[in-house]
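Lecture 7 notes: from sequence to structure.
We start with the chain below.
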Amino acid sequence: MTPSAHRHRGPLRVGYRVTVPNPRLPVGRDLLYGVYKKRLRSSLPPDSLPNHVAMIIDGNRRWARQRALETAAHGHRAGAAKVHEFLQWCDELGVRHVTLYLLSQDNLVGRDSSELTELIAIIADLAEEVSQQPDWRVQHVGSDEGLPASLVTALDTAEARTASHTGLHVNLAVGYGGRHEIAQAVRSILEEHGKRGSSIEDVAGLLTPELIGEHLYTSGQPDPDLVIRTSGEQRLSDFMLWQSAHSEFYFMEALGPDIREVDFLRALRDYAGRHRRFGS
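Predicted structure tokens for the same chain:
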């Protein structure tokens, strides 16, 4: 893929702008930041970059609490604005697939109702905004079960609008759970072969990792090469359990809204220096 740094990318209008780098930095340090960023970019051989990056942008609520903001929604909006920046970084570097963990199935039952309502509206806005970007393709990965109709409509509309696009493929993991995805894949296989009159024994003989992979939400896409999580947490939280079997993992200390491009470039530099063993 040819890097698209010269294509215009509009800002994400989600109601919160995060400026990077920090405008409080002295001019000299700001200049050094730019030089360091260019040096990091130039140190990354194109053939060392991941084809698929999966991202858990965590720490939005903590970010809002640290700033004594009234509600967690401020943090979620700041995180959503950062998502758009992150996608631009990926596109400019030639990453072809990005999966963003936005709302888990556990979130649907474990979050305060008012916070969840605001978060759902933010995700709907994000889906609409990302789908407006030239060439980007949006795909919902997750279950519609438990999602409000307004969010399902927003996700479906974003998918339909971008179905023919061939640029950056953006998976929005909403209403997502890794264990549920695997169970749903097996259920789909059983239903498909049951309609053909196959017995359980017949299906059991056909069941392979490859067949299950064909029935996952991300069927037809490469598995993530690199999984990144912000906020210092070091766990997957039921995210892409099947697809990440051979992924590399990178954990950032920065909270989601605070990540900078240099943080991402450092993650890519770390990834480029690893020898991937694919289970061996």
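Points to note: DSSP finds ten helices and six strands in the chain. The longest strand covers residues 97-104.
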